[in-house]
Amino acid sequence: MDADRTPKPVGTVWGLLVLNTLGSTGAETVVPLPRSLIQMVTMGALVAAFSLALVLNLRLRVRASAFLFLLTLLLVPSVIASADLQSGFGALFRCARLALFVGTLWLLSRWWDGGVTFVRHHIRMYFLVLCTVAAGALVSPGAAMPDLYGGRLVGALWPLTPPQIGQYAAVIIGLAVLLVLGGRTDRRSAALVIVPSLVLLMLTHTRTATLGLLVGLTLAIGSLTLTSAAARRFFSWAVLCAAVAAVVFASALQEWFLRGQSEENFSNLTGRAKVWDALLAAPRTIGEKVFGMGLGDKSFDGLPIDNSWLAVYHEQGLIGVGLVAAVFVALGGVALLRPPSLSRACAIFLIGYCALASYTEAGLGDASPYLLHLAVAASLLAQPAAAAPLSVPDPPRRRVPRWARTSEVT
């Protein structure tokens, strides 16, 4: 299926999904926004996305996708664990949200053809989000870099945390770089995205996003080096510049990376390790180990879990962990089997980024930007639909006179 045939409203649906996954918690905004209002906007965006996708795909044509099949299976432990209301009615609400989110992706899968259409949608939508962050920093620098977050950049117009902003910036930087190397966009257009996004990434001081960007790009560009001269040149220059920067700016880079933390605080990942140990040590029944405690707010005893695997284990049990692992195995296996291409490189970048970020950030078991990143990867790895064979019209039948239709001899 040709990417040019993808309806323009599909980009609107993708933007609504992005809006839904922005969340409702974060820094204080310049104009105080009630959390109930934000939740109404984000949930309304998801309902609108599903409705519009259904209108665009009334015949319910979908593409076979192991990724979406595994996400659908993930609903099973989510609903089973949430049904006893141990986590409150909010757990069932989150299950309904996840079902609607996955259903929208199924409807959009009709246009997954291995092209970069959804990559462009992804870059545009998250760049718009970053524009609001930049606007907030210009309007109120104090609110955009509050002392509560150690002077790190936050969302002053919409409540976004530094890790969120860093994640969005890192992902679109990596995708934009790959589009340039693949010759799918010009350098000027890419620079308009990469340069400001890189500035915002540095202002967030987000280590996970920075490492995810570097590791993901290394894997992606490495997959192109055998077939792309531009990728080989970029990789060589990147390695040279990184080596020089590591020597010349070693102390500055170390100071930025540590963010003023002590070695003890850095070693336990800013207190995350204590939460993880407490979560693993908490007593659980066999059912809670297998199916989890039900979908929640990705916290344990009021503290954020900040680890996708432990968050999935806590909320969806061992079954959920197995399904999420199967998602990475399926996407990674397909990516390795594909011949080198720009689509494959972009998919490898997204898979690598999400895999690395899963260690210090949660979101793989629920509707989140990480599932959107992996959905883009799945669209890039989809095989193009086979073109329908052209129907050849029957040749016109020659009219035979009535007197010549009989074989009788008179």
Structural notes for this entry:
Helix 3 packs antiparallel against helix 4, helix 7 (162-181) packs antiparallel against helix 8 (187-204) and helix 15 packs antiparallel against helix 16. The protein has a two-stranded antiparallel sheet. Helices cover 64% and strands 1% of the residues. The model has no long low-confidence stretch (mean pLDDT 86). It is mostly helical. It has helices at 9-20, 35-56, 66-82, 89-108, 117-139, 141-144, 162-181, 187-204, 207-222, 229-248, 250-258, 263-267, 272-281, 286-291, 308-337, 342-357, 369-381; strands at residues 299-300, 303-304. The protein is built from 17 helices and two strands.
Low-confidence stretches: none
Mean pLDDT over all positions = 86
Q: How much of the polypeptide forms β-strand, as a percent range?
A: under 5%
Round the Cα radius of gyration to an integer and report it: 25 Å
Shape: globular
Number of helices: 17
Please bin the fraction of helical residues: 55-70%
Largest beta sheet: what is the strand line-up? Answer: 1-2
Number of strands: 2
Judged by helices, strands and strand pairing, the structural class is: mainly alpha
* Element order: H for helix, E for strand: HHHHHHHHHHHHHHEEHHH
How far is the N terminus from the C terminus?
A: 62 Å
| Biggest sheet statistics | 2 strands, antiparallel
